[in-house]
Design goal:
Blueprint: E1 2-3, E2 42-44, H1 47-55, E3 61-66, H2 79-91, E4 97-100, E5 102-103, H3 110-124, H4 129-143, E6 147-149, H5 155-160, H6 170-189, E7 196-201, H7 219-226, E8 230-236, E9 262-268, E10 271-275
Parallel strand pairs: 1-5, 3-7, 3-8, 4-6, 4-7, 8-10
Antiparallel strand pairs: 2-9, 9-10
Helix pairs in contact: 2-4, 6-7
């Protein structure tokens, strides 16, 4: 989760002109073809070139998932910065709305809001740069006449996030964030003229989530309304990966990543992964053990 102290005034969704989505351009030739026993994939010189494949699906709602940066990984370029500086300028001319998985602290909610926010900030260990990256993205959205939205919490919702011991219940937090992202996505799917990016953790945008994570995905409900107009895209910074974040389907591609290209993998129709450039060689993390029965499948870096 990440935060922004002074987010610009946000406006509600409204009907606008008919959706305008980037036409499918001619795809650039991959730098290198898929090889040997590796999963089918394409290699492109940069993330903008790879996005041509995603935009060829003509999405009206694009659910983008990232691996959140932490203070321990502050030396790795943040995915949010990559999106802000490289992808948002490509998408902005065709968007009406940008929804961010963040919230502003409501001062009228008193101690519950302050306590929840403080504990989440401590537990998720977001680097200070995240706030700056968010501010830059919101400013870019306003300049491009794209409506930015955050996920406002009511005072009762803040209270409901704390257990009997006063600590934040992170499973409840992830569920609440999911519900709010889903509400925006469903409204976009049923409102003429809206083209939207939903930007947040990579646990929320999955069209085919693992059973233990299904509660935390908005994508199935949004796709039920939007159909083929919803597309899932994960932007994966390989150096942020842990075993629990690594999918067996594309894990064999990690050694093919490098500093001068991106790797595009298509999981299924309308579901893509872009492995971003790395500073050096990346090895495949060891498989994660199965989750314990009844455990909360919440991972701050992905949620």
């Amino acid at each position: 989760m990440f935060f922004l102290a002074a987010l610009v005034a946000l406006v509600a969704l409204a009907s606008a002109a008919p959706p305008v989505v980037a036409p499918a351009p001619a795809l650039p030739a991959p730098v290198a073809p898929a090889t040997g026993p590796l999963p089918p994939h394409q290699v492109f010189p940069d993330v903008v070139a790879a996005m041509d494949v995603v935009l060829a699906e003509n999405p009206h709602i694009l659910g983008i998932g990232e691996l959140h940066s932490t203070t321990a990984t502050a030396n790795v370029p943040s995915t949010l910065a990559v999106f802000t500086h490289e992808l948002f300028p490509l998408l902005a001319p065709h968007l009406t709305d940008l929804v961010l998985e963040t919230w502003r602290v409501d001062g009228t909610c008193g101690e519950p809001a302050a306590a929840v926010t403080a504990e989440v900030e401590t537990q998720t260990e977001r680097p200070p740069e995240t706030k700056s990256d968010l501010a830059v993205l919101v400013e870019a959205a306003v300049a491009a006449k794209v409506r930015p939205h955050d996920l406002a919490f009511s005072c009762d919702e803040y209270k409901g996030l704390r257990g009997t011991d006063g600590e934040v219940q992170f499973g409840a937090l992830l569920g609440l964030l999911t519900d709010k992202l889903q509400d925006y996505g469903v409204r976009a799917a049923t409102t003429p003229g809206v083209t939207m990016v939903l930007y947040g953790g990579a646990v929320h945008n999955d069209l085919a989530p693992r059973p233990e994570l299904a509660r935390y995905s908005y994508a199935t409900a949004v796709a039920a309304k939007a159909g083929k107009d919803y597309v899932e895209l994960d932007l994966v910074q390989p150096e942020l990966l842990t075993p629990t974040m690594t999918e067996p389907a594309w894990a064999p591609l990690l050694p093919t990543t490098g500093p001068d290209h991106v790797v595009l993998f298509e999981r299924a129709p309308r579901s893509f992964v872009i492995l971003l450039p790395t500073a050096g060689p990346v090895t495949t993390p060891a498989p994660a053990p199965p989750p314990s029965p009844g455990a909360t499948p919440a991972e701050p870096s992905k949620g």
